[in-house]
C-alpha cells in the first residue's frame, strides 16, 4: 500500500503536485477519444466509507486494523490529520493499515487541514465522546454547495455538549455525552456518521430518526459493532444506540466503492465496449444499473462482479438525484456526460446540492448541448463531442470530463485533476488497462 509514500498530490489537498516559489504546479490528464473499452477492472475501497472509518479509530486506545483502504488524496489528508492529533498509523500491507489512538495529545483540527476536505468534521463526534472536548475548524472541500454542519451541532447539543463557534472553529465540551432522541431537519450522511460515533460512548440510549441509509454509513456502523458498540437498525433511517463505557480494537474490510464502480459502468456505456468489474457489491448500484439498462447497456452481475457491454450509441435517460437507495448525486455528472452523446433529449434534476452543475460549462466546451434552469438541466444529445482544454471543478465533475473526453474526437486536456485524485484510486491506470488512451502529465508549470 502506498497511502503515505505516494507523492502524487500534496497532503494539503490544495493542489496536486508541488509548490515552487509560490507557483502551484498541477498534474493534467490527456485523453484521446474514440477507443472502445475491453478488459477487467478491480474496484477500490470506498472513499466515503474509509474516511469516517479512519476517524472512528479515535474512539479506542486499542489497535484498529483496516484493509481495502483506497489510495486517495483524501485518505492521506485524513491520516495526516490523525497523526497530528497523536494517532499512530502504520501501513501493514497492500491497502492495509493499522491505527492506534492510545496517545492522543492534540484535540484540535486546524483550518489548514479541514479547509481542503469536508470529511475532517468527522473527528468532532469521536473526540467529544472519548476525550470530552474538541476544537474543529469549520469545514471546506468541494465547492458544490453550502452543506452546513448545523445538524452535527444540534445533535451534539441534544446529547449535552456545550458548543461555541468562535474564530472559525467549533468548540465542543461535555464531561460525558448523554443519550438523546435526535431528529435531524434533513438527511445528512456526515451528520449521521458524526452523531453515531458520538452516541456509541454516550451514557444511555440514543435514538436517531431520519438517519442516512447510505451503505457507507452502514459500513461504519458495522465496524463500530465489531469494536463493541451496540447499534440496532443498521441500514434503516432509525438507529438505536445503547452507549457503552469504552470500545476495543477490531479488524475491518472497507466496503467497495459503489461510485467508482458506477463511474466505470457509465464510462463503458458512453464509450462502448465490454468490461468486467471485480470486487463490487452490485446490489448497492440498483438505481444506477436501472438507468444504464434504460440507456441500452447490457449488465450481468454476480456476488462480487459485474459485466457491462455496450455496442451502440446510448439512449438518453432522465435522472433525479435523491438520498440512498435512490439515484446518487455522486453519479449525476457522469450520467450527464453519457446523455451528452446519447440519442434524444434528457432532463437531469439535482435535489441534493444547489451548486452541482459546474461541469456543464466544461462539457459544453467539448461540444455538448446542455442548458441549466434552476436545479434542472436539459441535455440535447449531439452526434459527436470534440476534444478541447477543460478544467475540473470538483471530484465528480472530473469524472464526467474523463468520460466525455473518451467519447470525443481528438485530444482533450483536463486541468486541475487534483480533484480526481481525491476520490479515484489511479483512474487513468485502470482505464488505460482496458484500452482507453489516457495519460497523466506531471505538473511542470505555474497555475494562475
Please give a structural write-up.
With 448 residues, the protein is an alpha/beta fold. The chain has 2 domains: 28-44 and 256-441, Enolpyruvate transferase domain (UDP-n-acetylglucosamine1-carboxyvinyl-transferase, Chain, Alpha-beta prism); 47-253, UDP-n-acetylglucosamine1-carboxyvinyl-transferase, Chain (Alpha-beta prism). It contains 14 helices and 28 strands. The strands form 8 sheets. The chain has a 4-stranded mixed sheet with strand order 25-27-3-28. A hairpin with a 3-residue loop joins strand 18 and strand 19 (305-310). The longest helix has 14 residues, at 258-271. It is elongated. Pathway: Cell wall biogenesis; peptidoglycan biosynthesis.
Supply the key terms.
448 residues; alpha/beta; UDP-n-acetylglucosamine1-carboxyvinyl-transferase, Chain; four-stranded mixed sheet; 14 helices; disordered N terminus
Describe this structure in a few short sentences.
By secondary structure, the chain is α/β, with parallel strands linked by helices. The chain has two domains: 203 residues, UDP-n-acetylglucosamine1-carboxyvinyl-transferase, Chain, CATH 3.65.10; 207 residues, UDP-n-acetylglucosamine1-carboxyvinyl-transferase, Chain (Alpha-beta prism), CATH 3.65.10.10. Helix content is 30%, strand content 27%.
Amino acid at each position: 500500500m502506498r497511502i503515505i509514500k505516494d507523492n502524487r498530490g500534496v497532503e494539503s489537498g490544495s493542489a496536486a503536485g508541488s509548490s515552487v516559489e509560490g507557483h502551484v504546479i498541477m498534474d493534467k490528464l490527456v485523453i484521446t477519444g474514440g477507443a472502445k473499452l475491453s478488459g477487467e477492472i478491480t474496484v477500490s475501497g470506498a472513499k466515503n466509507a474509509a474516511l469516517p472509518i479512519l476517524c472512528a479509530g479515535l474512539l479506542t486506545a486499542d489497535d484498529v486494523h483496516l484493509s481495502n483502504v483506497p489510495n486517495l488524496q483524501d485518505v492521506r489528508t485524513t491520516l495526516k490529520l490523525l497523526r497530528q492529533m497523536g494517532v499512530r498509523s502504520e501501513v501493514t500491507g497492500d491497502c492495509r493499515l493499522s491505527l492506534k489512538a492510545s496517545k492522543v495529545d492534540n484535540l484540535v483540527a486546524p483550518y489548514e487541514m479541514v479547509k481542503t476536505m469536508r470529511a475532517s468534521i468527522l473527528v468532532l463526534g469521536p473526540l467529544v465522546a472519548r476525550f470530552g472536548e474538541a476544537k474543529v475548524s469549520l469545514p471546506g472541500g468541494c465547492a458544490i454547495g453550502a452543506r452546513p454542519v448545523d445538524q452535527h451541532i444540534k445533535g451534539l447539543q441534544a446529547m449535552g455538549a456545550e458548543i461555541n463557534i468562535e474564530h472559525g472553529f467549533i468548540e465542543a465540551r461535555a464531561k460525558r455525552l448523554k443519550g438523546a432522541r435526535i431528529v435531524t431537519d434533513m438527511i445528512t450522511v456526515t451528520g449521521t456518521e458524526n452523531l453515531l460515533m458520538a452516541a456509541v460512548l454516550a451514557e444511555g440510549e440514543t435514538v436517531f430518526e431520519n438517519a442516512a441509509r447510505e451503505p457507507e454509513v452502514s459500513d461504519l456502523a458495522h465496524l463500530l459493532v465489531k469494536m463493541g458498540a451496540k447499534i440496532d437498525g443498521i441500514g434503516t433511517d432509525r438507529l438505536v444506540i445503547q452507549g457503552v463505557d469504552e470500545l476495543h480494537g477490531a479488524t475491518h474490510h472497507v466496503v467497495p466503492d459503489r461510485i467508482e464502480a458506477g463511474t466505470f459502468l457509465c464510462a463503458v456505456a458512453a464509450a462502448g465496449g465490454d468490461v468486467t468489474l471485480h470486487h463490487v457489491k452490485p446490489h448497492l448500484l440498483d438505481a444506477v444499473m436501472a438507468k444504464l439498462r434504460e440507456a441500452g447497456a447490457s449488465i450481468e452481475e454476480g456476488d462480487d462482479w459485474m459485466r457491462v457491454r455496450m455496442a451502440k450509441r446510448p439512449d438518453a435517460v432522465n435522472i433525479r438525484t435523491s438520498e440512498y437507495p435512490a439515484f446518487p448525486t455522486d453519479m449525476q455528472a457522469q450520467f450527464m456526460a453519457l446523455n451528452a452523446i446519447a440519442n434524444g433529449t434528457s432532463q437531469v434534476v439535482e435535489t441534493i446540492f444547489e451548486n452541482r452543475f459546474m461541469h456543464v460549462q466544461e462539457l459544453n466546451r467539448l461540444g455538448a448541448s446542455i442548458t441549466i434552469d434552476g436545479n434542472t438541466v436539459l441535455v440535447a444529445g449531439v452526434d459527436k463531442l470534440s476534444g478541447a482544454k477543460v478544467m475540473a471543478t470538483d471530484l465528480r465533475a472530473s469524472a464526467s470530463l474523463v468520460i466525455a473526453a473518451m467519447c470525443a474526437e481528438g485530444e482533450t486536456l483536463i486541468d486541475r485533476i487534483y480533484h480526481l485524485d481525491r476520490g479515484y484510486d489511479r483512474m487513468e491506470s485502470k482505464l488505460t488497462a482496458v484500452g482507453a488512451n489516457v495519460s497523466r502529465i506531471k505538473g511542470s508549470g505555474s497555475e494562475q
